[in-house]
Amino acid sequence: MKSGKDAFETFLNLIYKSKEYILLEYYIFRDDRYGKMVADALSQKAKEGVRIYLIYDYIGCMDVSNDFFKNMEKNGVRVVAFNPIKLFSNPIKWDRRDHRKLAVFDGTAAIVSGWNIAEEYFISGEDAMSDLGLLVEGPVVKILERIFTKVYEKQTKERLKLKRNTESIKFGEDEVWVLESGPDLRTKPIYNAYRLAIMAAKKSVWIANAYFVPPRKLRIALAKAVNRMVDVKIILPDKIDVPMVKYASYNYFKSLLKNGVQIYERTKMILHSKIAVVDDVWVTVGSTNLHRRSFEKNYELNLVVTSERLGRQVKSVLEDELLYSRKVELQYWQNRPLTQKIKERIAALFSFLL
To answer: Is residue 161 in some structural domain?
Structure first.
């Protein structure tokens, strides 16, 4: 599901079709016209008796009016702020954010994406965010439901009891893995999945990512893939909402370009995707950016799917992104202005925070 009008209509339709419960977990739920349409739909379904649980990130929604969420609560929506900053709370844990983008409908369908609930993800034009999501059914939905439940119960100290779906679960043809990250995990499943997939690549590694400050071992894996004659393409945003991340990522361009990695910057729209396709069959879509914050500090969620059909579809999406992208050439990059290099070095000093 490409971000835009069709994605929003699909999202709303799933809300209106739900009969038992809806689970939503989003970093940003903005009180703009699109957020209000979603809030109105949720309130209407809550009044009809559908149980609705919403988790939003406290920092991600700091600019959202409290009345916006209170109105939903008055209409029967259970609203939970993730890790709110309080006067006597532990400041070391303040930067633990819920960056996931998850919606579960009646335990039978779910959307895992990189988009938030905000206008820029559902409009068109140069100020729009270009992103991707997966609509899934089958056994994987129950796993996603359990992940939501774990976060909900930890934040509220309440037991979440959902009506069990008695319908037989239909199995699809694709293999799907649910990967999450967070400071509570001893391992880094999403980081490891990326690294292992790149190390195993035989033909191609195509990545589109909004915030690209990759750890050293991931950069080495990309360079070694090129040495094996693998086609490695990285698509990054030209225009970005967090400039420091862009300058921090620039620190790695020279070494990557010298090693044969092809880097493109997406123009026209704001690239916000977090997707990858390896050998046209291994696909990952979700909320995870390629930087340490996503791998270690944030609560993130990605799906990994092995599917030739989906691989072709996502590869086609990336081919469309390339049509509007500018390739970064090594010679040009080596001659970039001194002022830009200074900004890169300053951003590098704070890259551990990104």
So the answer is: no
- Other residues' Cβ atoms within 10 Å of the Cβ of residue 127: 11
Establish if 168 belongs to a structural domain. Answer: no
Give yes or no for a contact between 269 and 146, defined as CB atoms under 8 angstroms apart. no
Buried b (16+ CB within 10 A) or exposed e, 194-212: bbebbbebeebbbbbbbbb
Q: What tens digit of pLDDT does each residue of 42-101 get?
A: 999 999 999 999 999 999 999 999 999 999 999 999 999 999 988 767 777 778 899 999
* Residues 124, 126, 127: CA angle, nearest 5 degrees: 80
- CA–chain centroid gap for 189, Å, is 15
Give the domain CATH number at 330: 3.30.870.10
DSSP assignment of 19-87: SSEEEEEES-B--SHHHHHHHHHHHHHHHTT-EEEEEEETTTTTTS-HHHHHHHHHTT-EEEEES---T
